[in-house]
Amino acid sequence: MLPRVEHELHKRRRSRNIGLLVVLLAFAALVFGLSIAKITNGDMMEGFDHQPRASVLPHDPNPPAKPAGPVAAPGTPGAAVSQESP
């Protein structure tokens, strides 16, 4: 049998594929490294959901006293009674 001769087009395509493999592996390594750095940073990993979080609020040395019972929403019939009683 005759040895199989590889065409120049296949050689160029193989070198491009190897180059693309190197770029994809570098990207995967970069994403992995950034993920590991974020996880090992030690910060609390909380998402930003437009809500105040107790973990980021400063500590209040004199917290307000809690009401004795349930508080009615303003504009409801129970709100007028609860505002007059204290």
From TrEMBL:
Chain residue ranges for the region called Disordered: 47-86
Domain of life where this protein originates: Bacteria
Low complexity composition-biased segments: 68-80
Protein name, UniProt field: Cytochrome C oxidase assembly protein
Organism for this UniProt entry: Paracoccus shanxieyensis
